[in-house]
């Protein structure tokens, strides 16, 4: 961490100019950058900005890398780091140190750091076995997203993606052309009976977005087109199927048990607005699986599936969960408290240690921010719109800035998230055109990605590779596994988390309920 005094000592500006702030870096010709080059240090493609990373090329097993955090250059955005930027240097160093030891060394916003963590847990390459000459070579690391970008399916491509260049300029795609697996946007008036009740209870699942990734199966490679496929709930992908026949007034709740419901009180789990679908539409695996679970048959017309898949996010979720539980325990909120003791411990826990409270908030924001970064629009080499019909930024390289965060370093071409509509913690798939889909080092290029369908994601930095995948419900990758949900609709899902009324800050048990 470089304080203002340290910046002056090393010949760096205490604050960035407006031009430098928008660029996210100081000019390449700055004297400090030249001094680093003469000393054989290199910068990632993000350049020397608020979260600059300085390294020397690896020599055998010897590696040297320095990650900088420059608060006066607005490195600690309040949207991601709360009031951290206002802390004295010693307290800020303690906060960042705790975060680094429990999660990983922060690399930027919570979204960027979350994506970096994914890549760190599944590096795109590994050293091969020694060849005849005793030399090792770089090879693909099984279970990772690899280092090469992968195209998404046409239905998963976000508006503006080069795959859609043949469509008329102002064409608006409908459910039969585009995957609409968005978070719910639904509400209804209270009934007369509900208006007579004295209390309204709000339920929040701790770490819901991260919990939705637990056990999730995501695609690790390119999609395969299949005509009239037989639906497979274990196969991540996108399916064109008509679910208009699903009647929510009568649903299956057990092996041979059906229940009658009032459909006017619940949203349809098959459209973002909660309305009943009126024809064939593209759905991610978890959404179609839910229709089957409710007791209705499905007959997909066509599909894009990913036979190369895996539980890519398990380690990521476990790392965030362990960091969250350990920090909450330090704040006096243990995982094994009785319900009454848990609620008492939660009251005022942030005042017990403000620095650790920021670590908790940052850990919780990370999973939400990672999924949010998947919906960013593509940008060109200079942060502007991608030229119509031009190559995907992920394939040609270049900088791209993310709408929600500073230019994300990484490369990616497609990624989609599966269906997160049902619950905030569900994964869904999405197409992510970022630069080569290698999350770790390159500046961001497209941005709509990390749990998605086929490619890498933007918030990475130039060296490692980012996720090019598809996953299922939760923050959004598209693929087909589990999802977490809240408890008010007739949809079953898995949600490794606990609500404020639960005895522990987070658990890994599955809860059944609606989206």
UniProtKB/TrEMBL annotation:
Residues 123-148, 380-515 are annotated as: Disordered. Residues 403-412, 453-475, 484-505 have a biased composition (Low complexity). Residues 128-140 have a biased composition (Basic and acidic residues). Residues 413-439, 506-515 have a biased composition (Polar residues). This is Transcriptional regulator. It comes from Streptomyces violaceusniger.
């Amino acid at each position: 961490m470089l304080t203002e005094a340290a910046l002056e000592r090393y010949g760096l500006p205490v604050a960035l100019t407006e031009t430098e702030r928008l660029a996210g870096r100081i000019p390449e010709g700055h004297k400090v950058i030249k001094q680093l080059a003469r000393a054989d240090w290199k910068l990632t493609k993000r350049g020397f900005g608020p979260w600059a990373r300085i390294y020397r090329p690896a020599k055998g097993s010897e590696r040297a890398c320095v990650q900088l955090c420059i608060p006066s250059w607005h490195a600690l955005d309040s949207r991601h780091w709360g009031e951290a930027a206002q802390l004295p240097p010693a307290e800020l160093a303690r906060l960042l140190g705790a975060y680094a030891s429990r999660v990983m060394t922060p690399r930027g916003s919570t979204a960027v750091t979350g994506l970096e963590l994914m890549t760190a847990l599944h590096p795109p390459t590994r050293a091969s076995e020694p060849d005849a000459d005793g030399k090792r070579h770089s090879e693909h690391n099984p279970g990772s997203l690899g280092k090469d970008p992968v195209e998404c399916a046409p239905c998963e491509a976000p508006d503006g993606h080069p795959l859609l260049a043949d469509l008329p300029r102002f064409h608006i795609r409908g459910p039969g052309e585009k995957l609409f697996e968005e978070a719910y946007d639904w509400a209804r008036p209270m009934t007369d009976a509900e208006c007579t009740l004295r209390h309204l209870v709000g339920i929040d699942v701790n770490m819901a977005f991260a919990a939705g990734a637990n056990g999730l199966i995501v695609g690790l490679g390119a999609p395969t087109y299949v005509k009239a496929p037989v639906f497979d709930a274990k196969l991540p992908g996108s399916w064109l199927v008509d679910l208009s026949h699903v009647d929510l007034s009568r649903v299956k709740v057990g092996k041979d048990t059906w229940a009658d419901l009032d459909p006017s009180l619940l949203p349809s789990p098959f459209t973002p607005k909660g309305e009943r679908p009126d024809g064939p539409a593209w759905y991610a695996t978890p959404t179609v699986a839910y229709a089957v679970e409710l007791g209705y048959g499905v007959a997909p017309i066509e599909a894009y599936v990913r036979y190369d898949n895996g539980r890519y996010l398990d380690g990521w979720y476990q790392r965030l969960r362990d960091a969250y539980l350990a920090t909450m325990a330090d704040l006096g909120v243990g995982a094994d408290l009785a319900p009454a003791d848990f609620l008492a411990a939660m009251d005022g826990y942030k005042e017990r240690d403000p620095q650790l409270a920021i670590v908790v908030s940052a850990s919780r924001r990370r999973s939400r921010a990672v999924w949010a970064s998947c919906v960013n629009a593509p940008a060109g080499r200079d942060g502007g719109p991608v030229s119509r019909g031009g190559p995907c930024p992920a394939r040609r390289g270049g900088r791209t800035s993310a709408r929600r965060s500073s230019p994300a370093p990484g490369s990616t071409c497609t990624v989609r998230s599966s269906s997160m509509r049902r619950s905030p913690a569900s994964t869904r798939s999405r197409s992510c055109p970022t630069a080569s889909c290698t999350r770790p080092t390159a500046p961001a290029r497209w941005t709509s990605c990390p749990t998605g369908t086929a490619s890498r994601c933007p918030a990475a930095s130039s060296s490692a590779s980012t996720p090019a995948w598809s996953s299922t419900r939760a923050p959004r990758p598209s693929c087909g596994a589990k999802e977490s949900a809240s408890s008010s609709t007739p949809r079953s899902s898995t949600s490794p988390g606990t609500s404020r009324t639960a005895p522990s800050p987070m658990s890994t048990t599955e809860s059944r309920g609606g989206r």
